[in-house]
Each structure stands twice: as structure tokens, then as C-alpha cells.
């Protein structure tokens, strides 16, 4: 049964880009190459409380010609169960100037999330539902203005991790990583682009220790711009380090 499930998952992810591309002729789509590098940490302080941190640097144009975004995103975590938790945090996002422009733009992004994972024989699933409030500095004609543009966004992620040896992902295990995340915009300024973007990831990972793994793969970011008929398809190489720490004593775990 698990092998049939693995096959269906792989087929579903393989068909997703085909569905997106089938809609392309009636849209104006711009393509670009990017490199995303990130460090993701979850730290357990007690049975109920912990911390989240992710730091990312994204480059663009021929993968790494210039900086695109920098993200710093800490949060407090409350553990409902070991595999079910809630995060409340803040994100600082620095947007580097667009090509040919000079103005840097900052974004302040409070966020809340419910995160849960489930393990099966030969398969681990991860899901999260995230709610973001976005305060973007106003920029007009390559110059900053007073105040912020505000909107909010909902994100839903569903990922699969399949060990390439054994029945579970433990230390010294290579694995396949597949994921898809859908973004939806809301707010007064959202007129033509309620659909914000879709991120499809396929790659490989290696679990070095119980608490540390690295994933490398291809990420496609298909994003609708505010005009409604212009889209950007970013083809990104993504390198991500996932690091978990647990400061509980063995008697409280």
C-alpha cells in the first residue's frame, strides 16, 4: 500500500507544472532564475514552549547576479502535542531594489501558524497553515513615501518526506522531499491578485543526525502580479538547513 501511495504522490507533483503551463498562453509570464539559501531552527525549551527561527537570503537573475530578498523570522512556539504546535512571530523582510532601480524596501510581517506532522511507515507528512499581516513601505517612482501599504495573506503548505532506505527518516538517512505551498492575498488593495503565488518544491535531503538535515532541490515560484494578467515564474535552486534543538532534561521528555 505504501508503495502505491508513494507512486501517486510523485505523479501528482509531476503533473502540477503541466497544469500551470497549460494556462500560460493567455497570460504574460516572465521567467527568471534564483538561488534561495536558508537556515531553519526549531528549539524546544520545555514540554510546552519553544522558539522558531528562520533566516533566508534569496538571489536572482542568472541564479545569483544580485540580491533579491533577506528574511529574518523569529517566533514563539506553543506545543499542543509533540507533532502539533502553534507559532506566533514577527518577520523582517528586506526587499532589494528591482533591476534598474535604487530604492530598498522594508516589510514588517507579524504572523501566526499552526504546524503539524504525521509519521507513517515509509512516509512523513508535514502541513502548516499560516496567517500573515504585511506592512510594506510605500515606494512610488523609485522613491520611498510616508506610511505603509497593508494587506494580509493566508498560506497553506503540504510536504512529503520519503526515506530512501528503511521505513523512517533517522540519522544517516537520505530522503526525497516534495512540497507545495499556496498563497492567497486579502485586503483593500487586493483587486486582481487574490491568488498570490504557488511554490512547488522537489528535491533530496540527507538526515545527518537526529536533529540536523540538509535539503537541496528545485523550487518553482509561480506568482501573479497586482495587475492581474502579469505573472512571474521563478526557477530557483534551494539549499536549506533544518536544525532542531531540545533543551529539556531527559526526565521531562
Automatic annotation (TrEMBL):
Taxonomic placement: Bacteria, Pseudomonadati, Bacteroidota, Cytophagia, Cytophagales
Signal peptide feature range: 1-22
Record's protein name: DUF2490 domain-containing protein
Keywords (A to Z) from UniProt: Signal
Domain of life: Bacteria
InterPro entries for the chain: DUF2490 (IPR019619)
Keyword field contains Signal: yes
Pfam families reported in the protein's UniProt record: DUF2490
Amino acid at each position: 500500500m505504501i508503495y502505491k501511495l508513494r507512486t501517486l504522490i510523485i505523479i501528482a507533483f509531476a503533473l502540477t507544472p503541466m497544469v500551470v503551463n497549460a494556462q500560460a498562453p493567455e497570460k504574460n509570464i516572465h521567467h527568471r532564475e534564483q538561488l534561495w539559501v536558508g537556515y531553519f531552527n526549531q528549539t524546544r525549551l520545555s514540554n510546552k514552549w519553544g522558539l522558531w527561527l528562520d533566516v533566508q537570503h534569496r538571489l536572482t537573475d542568472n541564479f545569483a547576479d544580485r540580491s533579491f530578498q533577506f528574511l529574518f523570522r523569529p517566533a514563539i512556539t506553543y506545543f499542543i502535542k509533540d507533532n502539533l504546535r502553534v507559532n506566533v512571530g514577527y518577520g523582517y523582510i528586506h526587499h532589494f531594489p528591482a533591476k534598474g532601480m535604487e530604492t530598498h524596501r522594508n516589510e514588517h510581517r507579524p504572523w501566526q501558524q499552526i504546524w503539524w506532522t504525521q509519521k507513517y511507515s515509509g512516509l512523513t507528512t508535514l502541513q502548516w497553515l499560516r496567517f500573515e499581516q504585511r506592512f510594506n513601505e510605500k515606494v512610488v517612482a523609485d522613491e520611498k513615501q510616508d506610511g505603509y501599504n497593508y494587506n494580509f495573506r493566508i498560506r497553506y503548505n503540504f510536504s512529503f518526506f520519503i526515506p530512501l532506505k528503511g521505513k523512517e527518516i533517522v540519522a544517516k538517512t537520505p530522503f526525497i522531499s516534495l512540497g507545495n505551498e499556496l498563497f492567497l492575498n486579502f485586503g483593500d488593495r487586493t483587486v486582481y491578485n487574490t491568488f498570490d503565488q504557488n511554490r512547488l518544491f522537489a528535491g533530496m535531503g540527507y538526515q545527518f543526525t537526529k536533529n540536523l538535515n540538509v535539503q537541496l532541490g528545485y523550487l518553482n515560484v509561480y506568482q501573479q502580479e497586482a495587475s492581474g494578467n502579469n505573472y512571474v515564474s521563478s526557477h530557483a535552486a534551494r539549499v536549506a538547513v533544518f536544525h532542531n534543538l531540545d533543551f529539556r532534561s531527559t526526565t521531562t521528555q
